[in-house]
Design brief:
The structure holds two protein chains of two kinds. Chain A is mainly beta. Helices cover 2% and strands 37% of the residues of chain A. Chain A has a four-stranded antiparallel beta sheet with strand order 3-2-1-28, with no helix packed on it. In chain A, strands 4-5-6-7 form a four-stranded antiparallel beta sheet, with no helix packed on it. Chain A has a four-stranded antiparallel beta sheet with strand order 8-9-10-11. The longest helix of chain A is centred in the middle third of the chain and has 5 residues. The radius of gyration of chain A is 19 Å and the shape is globular. The relative contact order of chain B is 0.25. The chains are: A mainly beta, B alpha+beta. At the A-B interface, loops of A face helix 2 of B.
Chain lengths: 379, 87
């Protein structure tokens, strides 16, 4: 399939990023050329900020998902681009009597362009929540949270990744507000066509080599799922077991991690899409061999880019440390801007922020000495 | 009853280190009263199933409260503490 490279309006203005970390929230802003960068913050110092997202519909509402070591999870909300903040009146929480408790809100996603004020949140353990008032009051999406199969799909709340099982990658089809995808670690990718009332697994073709069935219906571990904004039938996922692509209405994912170099492997957390070209994507491989060190393979970090939908990959490491760099990049900690020549950015587990102003060809460290970076989003 | 507010919750109390909340019957009552004055505080220390969060301790006149049903009628002081929670 040949997909034309779409034009779209490329921006030429300063780039601003939200940097959510284990110890608070920072921002960094560039000049128009994206050569000079200025770090600002922290806000919410000492809070574990899992995600901070600007609403692209009004470009002024910001939400931040936070908790502390002692205090329970909440959502902070700004309606003036982060100058002032107020706590959500009713943060995401499971129903009393359900026996489930939200450990932390992990993922924030804005709703459809036709539904201003609608947001979604994914939690650990796996829960899906919706706000209709710009993130102040949250209610469970009961079609998922109370689904009779949910526990079968996800396992128990004690199962899952080291930092707790998570619902993430909440994708709203830009053509249809009722059409949703979610990713769960673990659980897999699920689809709803009725605004979250009903759900079905969408995992065929995705490996799950930690399960006895080589091609199960659910139980997978997608780390990050992305939907192309200009070609919404194109989905990609970086999974615990490789990299995959799906072109709907097909139901079976294609393994595109097989084209990665064997010495690097196809394991990682983040996956970033070119904002206009559905064929171009970036991943950040990590060592998923043997006992899963979860570091850059060989201590030589590099981004890998494909410009043909994952049929082949090119290493992009110019400017990155050539050796003895043992950090990696979490699933929310990599993003791209909208510029004519796209800027790509990632934040590391060791608190460094790296950026490329030439689509990943060359890299420069934009900030260091920050706390462990959890998420990076355009502001 | 006087509630001693730990530093980690003083963003809710405008910096107040202690608050007089009258005469609650039990700990649940006391926290409802606190939340009525300082909206959002309760959910940070008590989860949606009514359990005190793992790294929060509450002492009533110096005695560790086992849960929200702990009686506090006649007590002089409720002390909320953020216990050790790692680096």
């Amino acid at each position: 399939m040949v997909i034309p490279r779409k034009g779209g309006a490329a921006r030429s203005r300063p780039t601003k990023l939200l940097i959510a970390t284990r110890k608070g929230l920072w921002t960094i802003e560039s000049d128009v050329a994206r050569r000079a960068w200025k770090l600002a913050g922290p806000q919410f110092l000492g809070n574990i900020v899992h995600h901070a997202v600007l609403d692209p519909r009004d470009r002024k509402t910001l939400l931040a998902a936070a908790r502390t070591g002692h205090l329970g999870p909440t959502v902070f909300r700004s309606v003036d681009r982060g100058r002032t903040w107020k706590e959500a009146a009713r943060p995401p929480a499971f129903n009393p009597g359900s026996g489930r408790t939200v450990d932390h809100t992990f993922w924030l996603a804005t709703g459809h362009a036709s539904e201003p004020g609608v947001w979604y949140a994914g939690t650990s353990p796996q829960g899906l929540f919706r706000s209709e008032d710009g993130g102040s009051s949250w209610a469970g999406v009961e079609g998922f949270n109370e689904h009779p199969q949910r526990k079968v799909w996800c396992g128990g709340d004690q199962d899952g990744t080291p930092d707790g099982p998570k619902l993430h990658s909440i994708l709203v089809d830009p053509r249809d507000p009722a059409h949703l995808y979610i990713g769960m670690s673990s659980g897999g990718v699920f689809e709803s066509t009725d605004r979250g009332a009903g759900w079905r697994p969408l995992n065929r073709g995705v490996k799950a080599d930690f399960l006895p069935d080589p091609d199960p219906e659910f139980g997978h571990d997608p780390h990050c799922v992305r939907q192309h904004p200009q070609l919404p039938d194109r989905l990609y996922q970086q999974n615990h077991c490789g990299i995959f692509r799906l072109d709907r209405p097909a139901e079976r994912w294609t393994d595109i991690g097989v084209a990665m170099p064997k010495s690097v492997g196809a394991i990682g957390f983040p996956l970033v899409l070119h904002p206009r070209d559905p064929e171009t994507l970036w991943v950040f491989p990590m060592d998923g061999s043997t006992i899963w060190p979860r570091v850059s393979p060989g201590g030589r970090p590099a981004v890998y880019r494909s410009v043909n939908g994952g049929r082949s990959w090119q290493r992009q490491g110019i400017g990155l440390p050539a050796s003895q760099a043992w950090w990696t990049v979490k699933r929310q900690a990599m993003t791209a801007d909208q510029a004519a020549t796209v800027g790509v950015y990632f934040g590391t587990t060791s608190g460094e922020l790296w950026g490329s102003r030439d689509e990943g060809r060359t890299w420069k460290c934009l900030a260091r000495h920050l706390p462990h970076i959890y998420a990076l989003e355009m502001a | 009853m006087i509630v001693r507010i730990p530093g980690l919750l003083r963003s809710y109390t405008n910096g107040a280190e202690s608050v007089d909340i009258g005469s609650p019957v039990d700990l649940a009552d006391a926290l409802d009263e606190l939340d009525a004055r300082f909206s959002g505080l309760r959910f940070r220390v008590v989860d949606e199933q009514g359990a005190i969060r793992p790294h929060i301790k509450m002492f009533v006149d110096g005695v560790l409260a086992p849960g929200l049903r702990a009686p506090v009628a006649g007590a002089r002081e409720l002390m909320i503490v953020g216990a050790l929670s790692g680096g």
